[in-house]
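Severity: low
Component: inverse-folding endpoint
Summary: output formatting inconsistent between runs
Steps to reproduce: submit the following structure tokens with default settings.
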């Protein structure tokens, strides 16, 4: 977790602990108790008019705070509560970065010899991956097409593959094997494959 996220997590955890005290609840000491407390806390956030991203940050911060806590994606009741939160109180999206600005930035990076950084920028723009998720990608996570035409005719990226032994590759959602189809733009998959051609599977 980066320094900025760490400060946000600390703020969220302090608010969660303060709510526990105000409600006369004991601080959770196991996964089951944490899940129950988070469910009740998210009900409180909903009643206060908070948005989905507030509940998501609270759950992620609590899971990070307790060393024994499972990932948010491993707490089924919390996952269902967050899903309901998103449907009822969707997060307001920021205005997207215009494609022309991204392309200009990538062109500048190429002009100063930063080709790999340009490729990372373009990949992040089209896949919506977080910077940390993007940095943890390996050659083996890029899968080639299995058909000439149809939905399986595109390259795909597997984020946090189940067989990975690196616990830090698990994304914030807590889910393994999230697949991203590289169908827009169609040249992104082949470009990534070309970039990975002479790399080892774990590079």
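Observed output (run 2 of 3):
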């Amino acid at each position: 977790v980066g320094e900025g996220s760490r400060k946000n997590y600390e703020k969220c955890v302090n608010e969660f602990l303060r709510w526990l005290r105000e409600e006369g609840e004991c601080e959770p000491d196991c996964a089951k108790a944490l899940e129950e407390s988070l469910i009740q806390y998210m009900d409180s956030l909903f009643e206060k008019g908070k948005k989905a991203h507030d509940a998501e940050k609270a759950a992620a911060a609590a899971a990070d705070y307790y060393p024994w806590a499972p990932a948010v994606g491993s707490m089924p009741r919390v996952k269902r509560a967050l899903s309901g939160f998103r449907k009822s109180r969707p997060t307001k999206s920021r205005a997207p970065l215009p494609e022309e600005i991204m392309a200009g930035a990538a062109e500048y990076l190429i002009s100063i010899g930063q080709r790999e950084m340009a490729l990372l920028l373009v990949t992040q723009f089209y896949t919506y991956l977080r910077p940390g998720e993007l940095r943890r990608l390996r050659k083996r996570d890029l899968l080639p097409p299995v058909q000439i035409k149809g939905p399986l005719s595109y390259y795909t990226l597997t984020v946090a593959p189940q067989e990975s032994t690196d616990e830090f590759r698990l994304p914030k959602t807590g889910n393994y094997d999230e697949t991203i189809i590289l169908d827009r733009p169609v040249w992104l998959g082949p470009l990534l494959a070309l970039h990975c051609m002479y790399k080892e599977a774990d590079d």
